[in-house]
């Protein structure tokens, strides 16, 4: 029985533990799915916009310095180029030393004239004479309007993959003579840094390439399989739709445990230059994994408690049943006097009825007294069978030898005699703590008369009784009347 109890309750504990873990894991997944990806996208978008805005403000405050004007005032093209390279190097060093720009070190610093043609860049003679205004029209518009701006500079042909910010440069008269542009790397490290500084979710930046999607950068937790799913339909179609509409769009076609959203990278160029994607894992593996061990621990504790409880429950139920079984077997083998003395809250009634059944089957009078020897239930008046102990020592005395107080019995009327004897007998029984509710006068008198008649026939003379209490016994003292 113990094994069955353990097996049943162990299955219940395991089912409850497994169901609890499943429901908790599903709930965590639902919490993650409800808004993690959109929140991560908004946070990363804001971070990249702030990076560009801070760099714009820094450039605007330094673009009016005399060091930046010198290249535009040089007399020859080679002199302007060399001066532009020197100024670009100085700008790069100043940007790298600036505390607010320390997390986005510059990869490119370039000076351009009013048409967007490159005068020179930092650390190299490359790009001199390149028409950046034609390649990146937003730069030329910013120079024409005399405002700062930021743009996404991605060109596979030019091997450029930058987030660029720029500010106009003015001469002493306040006329725009060109602009200074600083480009920071748009690569996996940049997006990983942005992810760590915001939500920790997967981030991807992509641009449109013909009818396809070209992934420019991704955070380090983006797997190749995930990137491949993003560049294929329907995820690709959703990303291109987000890029064209400027709205946040849910992306389909990803593995079931991921949810992705995309939105055009606002604040850079015309806001349609690149699309930023955020991907959240629906099942919240960290939280679910952390939940697994507590659930397993509680389940293990439940199994231990099941074993302990089963042991005590088995002992509480099985041992009395085993005693009953052994007792019945002994009675069948000849021990007809054996009765069960099992005290049990649940089986006590069964044990009492078994003992009663055995007494009836074997013709044994049941003991109906309590622990103090008193009847456990009041008998009916017709069942008065109390023993009447008689003392016959005075029965052989002659009339002259009878004591004076006993001679009064000779003169007492019969009805008064029996009424008095009954009252004395009842009083004596009560003084000893014996029940008297079952004793009626008629039954007592009938017994008393029968006893007097039997004793009178034995001694050849009429008899009457006196009631005496001796210890815990009531004695009828026989007194002869002649």
TrEMBL record:
NCBIfam families listed in its UniProt record: MXAN_5187_C_dom
Spans traversing the lipid bilayer: 291-313
The name this protein goes by in its record: HAMP domain-containing protein
Highest taxon in the source lineage: Bacteria
Keywords per UniProt: Membrane, Transmembrane, Transmembrane helix
């Amino acid at each position: 029985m113990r094994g069955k109890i353990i097996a049943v309750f162990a299955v219940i504990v395991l089912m409850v533990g497994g169901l609890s873990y499943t429901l908790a894991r599903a709930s965590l997944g639902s919490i993650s799915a409800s808004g993690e990806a959109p929140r991560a996208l908004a946070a990363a978008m804001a971070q990249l916009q702030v990076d560009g805005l801070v760099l714009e403000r820094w450039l605007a405050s330094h673009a009016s310095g005399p060091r930046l004007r010198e290249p535009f005032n040089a007399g020859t093209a080679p002199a302007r180029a060399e001066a532009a390279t020197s100024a670009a190097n100085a700008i790069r060093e100043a940007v790298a030393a600036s505390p607010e720009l320390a997390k986005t070190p510059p990869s490119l610093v370039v000076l351009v004239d009013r048409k967007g043609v490159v005068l020179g860049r930092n650390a190299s003679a490359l790009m001199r004479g390149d028409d950046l205004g034609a390649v990146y029209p937003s730069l030329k518009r910013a120079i024409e309007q005399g405002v700062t701006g930021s743009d996404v500079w991605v060109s596979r042909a030019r091997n450029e993959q930058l987030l660029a910010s720029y500010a106009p440069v003015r001469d002493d008269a306040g006329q725009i003579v060109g602009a200074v542009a600083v480009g920071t790397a748009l690569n996996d490290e940049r997006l990983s840094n942005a992810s760590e500084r915001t939500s920790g979710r997967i981030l991807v930046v992509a641009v449109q390439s013909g009818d396809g999607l070209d992934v420019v950068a991704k955070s380090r937790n983006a797997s190749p399989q995930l990137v491949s799913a993003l560049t294929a339909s329907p995820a690709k179609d959703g990303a291109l739709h987000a890029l064209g509409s400027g709205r946040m769009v849910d992306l389909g076609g990803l593995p079931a445990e991921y949810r992705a959203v995309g939105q055009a990278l606002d604040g850079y160029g015309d806001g349609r230059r690149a699309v930023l994607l955020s991907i959240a894992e629906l099942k919240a593996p960290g939280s679910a994994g952390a939940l697994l061990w507590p659930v397993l621990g509680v389940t293990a504790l439940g199994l231990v408690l099941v074993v302990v409880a089963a042991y005590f429950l088995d002992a509480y139920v099985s041992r009395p049943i085993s005693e009953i079984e052994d007792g019945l077997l002994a009675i069948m083998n000849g021990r007809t006097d054996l009765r069960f003395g099992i005290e049990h809250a649940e089986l006590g009634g069964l044990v009492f009825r078994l003992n009663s059944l055995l007494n009836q089957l074997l013709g044994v009078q049941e003991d109906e007294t309590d622990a103090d020897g008193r009847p456990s239930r009041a008998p009916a008046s017709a069942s008065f069978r109390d023993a009447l102990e008689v003392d016959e020592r005075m029965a052989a005395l002659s009339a002259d030898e009878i004591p004076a107080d006993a001679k009064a019995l000779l003169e007492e009327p019969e009805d008064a005699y029996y009424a008095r004897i009954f009252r004395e007998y009842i009083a004596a029984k009560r003084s000893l703590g014996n029940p008297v509710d079952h004793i009626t006068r008629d039954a007592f008198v009938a017994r008393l008369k029968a006893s007097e008649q039997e004793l009178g026939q034995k001694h050849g003379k009429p008899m009457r009784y006196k009631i005496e209490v001796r210890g815990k016994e009531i004695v009828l003292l026989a007194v002869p009347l002649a």
